[in-house]
Amino acid sequence: MTSAMRYTVALDLPPVNDGHPRPENKSSRMDPKAIEQRILQAMPEARVSVISDDQVHYTARIVSDDFDGLSRIQRHRRVHSAIGDELGREIHALSLDLKTPSEAER
Description:
By secondary structure, the chain is of the alpha+beta class. It has helices at residues 32-42, 72-83, 101-105; strands at 47-51, 57-63, 93-99. It has a single domain (30-105), classed as BolA-like (GMP Synthetase, Chain A, domain 3), CATH 3.30.300. A 3-stranded mixed β-sheet has the order 1-2-3. The protein is globular and about 35 Å long.
């Protein structure tokens, strides 16, 4: 039987600078109301609610006629496009509940 050896290596390297800001502190986190406003700019007639306990992980519920006839993936892409580059940076995780008005009534 072989024993497993574990090594820890500390590298003294500068942080990666790929031109994208990182959410390192609370000031770079995004307020749920700001996310709601971005969605409403792209979908003015939508009913939008975004909540977050930590301003890094978010849950959004959006009801809009714009989703009529769109697949689930197309709906998600529309919302991702409205939010922009912050998705994956300031917004670490986003759970989406996307419905048309008739789906929301059920």
